Amino acid sequence: MKTALFILLAFSGAVSVLYAALVAVFGRDRPLSVSPGPGTDWPFVSLLKPVKGFDDDLAGNLESFYRLDYPRYEVLFAVDDRRDPCLAVIEEVAAAHPHVATRIIATGRPPDENPKIHKLARLEAESRGVLLWTTDADVRVSPGTLRRLVSEYLSHDAKIVFSPLRGTGSLSFASLMENAGLRFFTSGGVLAAWLFGRRPVIVGKSILIERAALAAFGGFAYFKDFLAEDFLLGETFAKSGFPVSTNFTWVTCLSRKTSLKRFANRLSRWAKLRFRLAPSAYVLEVLLNPVILSLAVWAVLGLGGWRVPAAVAAGKIALEYTGFLILGQEDRRRPLNHLLFPAAVLAKDLLFFAVYFAPFFSRRVDWRGGRVTIGRQTLIQTPGNRDALAYDGA
Amino acid sequence: MMEREKVRVVTVLMGLGHLRAAYPLREIAGGKIFVYGARNTTPPGEYRLWQSIRRFYYGSSRVGSIPVVGKAVGSVLLAIQRIPRYYPRTDQSRPNAGVRYLKRLIKRRNICRGLRRRLGDDAAPVVHTYFATAIALDRFEAEEGGPERIHYLVICDADFNRVWVAEDPKKSRIRYLAPCAQVQRRLFAYGVPRASVFLTGFPLPKENIGSETGLEILKADLFDRLLRLDPRGKFFFYHRKDVLDRLGRENLPEPGAKALEVMFAVGGAGAQVEMVRPILTSLRQRIRSGEVRLTFSCGMMRQIFERVLGDINRAGLGRELNRGLRIVYDRDVFSYFDRFNRALRETDILWTKPSELTFYCGLGLPILMAEPIGAQEELNKRWLREIHAGVDAPGSLESCGEWLFDLRDGGRLAEAAWDGFLKARKLGTFKIERLIRTGELREGDSPLER
Q1: Does B33 contact A at CB distance below 8 Å?
Q2: Closest CA in chain A for residue B16
């Protein structure tokens, strides 16, 4: 028993070291291996932004998309309706940048389908770009981001180019936890899956898609019945023989003042999605949490074994701290974040474990102001799409 | 006369065949087709039973592709579904194991009990395209009383197992709708009274036919197809006058240089998906040069659609999508049929296993026959051969780029299209509708009236 636990703990530790190393090595925008030449005809890009309500520092995030160093693009926003308070912010930012074509579309909210996909499908129909770049409202980018993403598309004929995420901007303890989780667990996992398994684990914060390839599926609407549309986009494209790629162009995901409840809800939702996408892989995820495994070892060793969890906790904090220093540009400017960081890492790992069991007992997910029940592959369970069979088209 | 909305059409999801037979009958049911065995139409306990039946069905469709044991398991399944020889004529009315098993499912596991509740007590006739729903309801109503309801059962193959007929057909209220004469003969052999058998033809989509008396769409599509299928005039050398007379044309136009339109039916359960890659490889150059346009009909399963799309991309033909290559797919099965029927109008050759699509030869489509799955498909294939509407692949899949064009240039495909049009029944949908509304069934004197 002890030996087995120590083996698992060693494995878990090794994975943590690997994640930290990947984040350290790939954590900065790397020089492009192949770069389009000076005479490159940069394709027109449509930036698609589904928005709902206020995200942290929404204006700042949007602003960054108007300062892109890219010759030809347009920005399209989708909101549920014209009463959404985010509208004023969007209009203000757009008005400050009249040289960038901007449109705002009110799409409504369908009861039975993925609301984000509903918005994206509407935006897709309105857009003109050869390439579509979908980003969430809490994402901030640097001026060179789009050019780097398109370079990858041009150089490798990639039909989807995805990005790892750096969480930053923490002004609350829960945000500090959330950003640490994004940098280490999410981006570490994304990088490891890509580099060692060539599996595109796509997080929908930023995805560049070729319109023509997407059209082969009938557009975004192909994914409307699924909640984990981002993951399925990557998997479906790869399975269908469309090249998917990344050149490790990071995008920043801003979480400033999230609450513990919101963070726990998000963790729980993501856990349920992962479980429905790959149940067996999800069950093994607990092995990626050395802090929890070290507590199990302590329980077996008795009180005297406290050194094990202490050492593991110290090691884990140190590993994540490297990511904090490399990727958390805003976070590291705030001294209090340095002080709170060790506690945030441990609290986050304990919270990860607490929500780990949620998918075994519940299929219900809170998302974008609604509650939905999900099935296999995160299929949204409504009478309409459980079995799309009953014909009533007189 | 029966009120339009008072006819019910009931089908099940078991591959696409039974649904496809139901879809053309939607008009008579006021636009409503009831799909039983689906999660949202079936009580949970019974739904699980349907799921396990479906799993068996889909598994058996794909069993042949399992390495090593596939063939052996396939032959065992074939033995279970065995259809007895028709000749010498014998009394085949004795219930077989399938009939007894279905009886057990009805008595012990209450299969279709939820359907009886859903249909309520009104006496509106019900058209079924799957045997289990018809036989179960007929049995419930006979044993427990209830409305004097007539059940019509559309037989979906050119020959079929005894399980499609009630245990005691003489006591049953089921009326059988036969797509071809062989089915009629077989029904008699299974003990069904003559008064309960109606030779209607298989229900084909009206949108591919036109009116019952004019066949406007069918004739126009067929004429264009024959021109494309006979660029060297070998078929027209023999049949020119007959074609012009029957299709109401004055003369033949000069042959144009249009691409040959082939539709390959991958199958609702994806039974033919393994064939996609070699076909693409063999036809690659001709697709690129515009000599052939290939359409894959993939049904409603995402996995099948994505697999075919992957094969296209991996064959280096991604750029031909929506040009030399098309995929017909829809998550909604009825939207899928709409697309499929539309695509058929532009199709010159329907390449499929001999499923219920066998009867689509009546639309003047030559059927290029892939390997059959199951005893009934073996007999569908035989029927296609008998009426000369089916063509066997003369070579391997890897060489289809050669023999497909040889078949066309020899006029054989045009001949199959013409024979299917003349010899297979086209008006099943119209005849079934009239039979149910008026109780009448008239057999026309001309092949174009059947």
Answers
A1: yes
A2: A389
Q: Let me know if residue A394 belongs to a domain.
A: no
Tokens of B440: 């009448």
pLDDT at A370 over 80: no
Closest partner residue to A392 among B32, B307, B322, by Cβ? Answer: B32
Q: What is the pLDDT of residues A146-205, one digit of tens each?
A: 999 999 999 888 999 999 999 999 999 999 999 999 999 999 999 999 999 999 999 999
Contact B293, B259 (CB under 8 A): yes
Same domain, A238 and A305: no
Amino acid, single-letter form, for residue A295 = L
Sign of CA pseudo-dihedral B383, B389, B394, B400:
negative
Give residue B73's pLDDT band: very low, low, confident or very high (50, 70, 90): low
DSSP, residue by residue, A356-387: HTHHHH--EEEETTEEEEB-GGGBB--HHHHS
Residues A79 and A160 in one domain: yes
Q: Does one domain contain both A9 and A104?
A: no
In this predicted model, which residue has the larger pLDDT, A286 or B82?
A286
Of A234, A260, A286, the domain-final residue: A260
β-sheet bridge partners, residue A166 = A252
Residue A266 — pLDDT band, cuts 50, 70, 90? Answer: very high
Closest residue to A388, CB basis, from B23, B309, B332? B332
Q: Enumerate residues 6+ apart whose C-beta is below 8 A from B58.
A: B15, B269
Provide the chain B residues 322-351 that lie in CB contact (below 8 A) with chain A. 322, 327, 331-334
For residue A377, tell me if it sits in a domain. no
CB-CB neighbors (< 8 A) of B321 in chain A: 216
Residue A371 has pLDDT above 50, yes or no: yes
Residues in chain B with CB shorter than 8 Å from the CB of A390 are: 33-35, 38, 40-41
Alpha carbons B350 and B362: distance in angstroms, whole number: 12
- The ipTM, to two decimals, is 0.84
**Which pLDDT score, from 0 to 100, does residue B120 have?**
85
pTM summary value: 0.88
Least Cα separation, residue B435 to chain A (angstroms): 21
Q: Tell me the residue range of the domain where A291 lies.
A: 2-23+277-365
Encode pLDDT of B215-257 as tens digits.
999 999 999 999 999 999 999 999 999 999 999 999 998 877 7
Last residue of a domain, one of A260, A294, A325: A260
Q: Give the other-Cβ count within 10 Å of A303's Cβ.
A: 7
B38 to chain A: which residues are within 8 Å by CB? 386-387, 389-390
The verdict on residue A387 lying in a domain is: no
The half-sphere exposure of B238 on its side-chain side, counting CA atoms within 13 A, is 11
User: What CATH number does residue A49 fall under?
Assistant: 3.90.550.10
Query: Of A241, A387, A390, which has the smallest distance from its Cβ to B310's Cβ?
Result: A241
A242 and B313 within 8 Å at the Cβ level: the answer is yes
- Domain identity same for A13 and A59: no
Cβ neighbours for A65, distance < 8 A, ≥ 6 positions apart = A47, A49, A75, A135, A141
Residue A359 and residue A223 share a domain:
no
Q: Which tokens go with B217?
A: 């769409």
Same domain, A78 and A226: yes
Please state, in angstroms and rounded to a whole number, the distance separating the CA atoms of residues A240 and A227. 20
**Do A17 and A165 share a domain, yes or no?**
no
Nearest-by-Cβ selection for A216 from B26, B307, B321: B321
Neighbours of A389 (CB within 10 A): 22
Average pLDDT of span B35-64? 82
Considering only alpha carbons, which residue of chain B is nearest residue A238?
Answer: B310
**pLDDT per position as a tens digit, A12-47:** 999 999 999 999 999 877 777 666 667 778 999 999
Residue A70 inside a domain? The answer is: yes
How many folded domains does chain A comprise? Answer: 2
| A98 and A222 share one domain | yes
Q: Half-sphere exposure of A220 toward its Cβ, with a 13 Å CA cutoff?
A: 28
